[in-house]
Amino acid sequence: MVTQSSTGHAAAEGSRLPFRLWTPEEREASMREALAHCRPGEDVWIFGYGSLIWRPEFEYRERRLATLRGHHRALCLWSRVNRGTPESPGLVFGLDRGGSCRGVVYRLAAADVPRYFPALWSREMSTGAYLPRWLSCSTDEGPVRALVFVMNRANPAYIPTLPEPELVAIVRRASGKYGPCIDYVLQTAEALAAAGIHDRRLARLSRVLAHERHTLPET
């Protein structure tokens, strides 16, 4: 695991960490285990805190602003496929322990769960870096029990908070299957602002990234 005492070499360490995509059988087993905690015929809520806010990829019956307590949004997960490569990993958001996170919850019709959940699991659980949990989220209309993908700190791809200069350098340098890491971070910041969600740390990071976007990143 990379610690803050070695963050000057975080990207190099990240490229050497073990990396394996889950098999379809592993994803299926994980999904079935999560759905075992749902009542048959009951609509399902999903909590979004990152790209699910601006690219949910499923139809939903209802969308609400929501607050999850006990976890906060952080760039704490190495991405070596979607927003980076094994040789030059990027960073994506996870829900790390502590604090709270403002996001959105989506209500899916029970009949749509078999249609959308396999793709959701393929997207969120490709490496098993998250732990699917059913957690209470606060909304203006009352609490809801939602599926939340929280960070698995035991996963090799987890990394604690990095100093801002190194975080900026990694985000500006990395690119993967879904495009540049910087686009992912900036799109998330824009989506949060459009939804009326204020994330002070992300807002500051996005200003720095946008200001330096057209200069060459440090090697």
From TrEMBL:
Enzyme Commission number(s) from the entry: 4.3.2.7
A GO term from the CC aspect: cytoplasm
GO annotation terms (biological process): glutathione catabolic process
InterPro entries documented for this protein: ChaC (IPR006840), GGCT-like (IPR013024), GGCT-like_sf (IPR036568)
Molecular functions (GO terms): glutathione specific gamma-glutamylcyclotransferase activity; transferase activity
Transmembrane segments: none
Keyword tags: Lyase, Transferase
EC main group: lyase
Record Pfam families: ChaC
The protein's name in its UniProt record: glutathione-specific gamma-glutamylcyclotransferase
Organism the protein comes from: Bordetella genomosp. 9
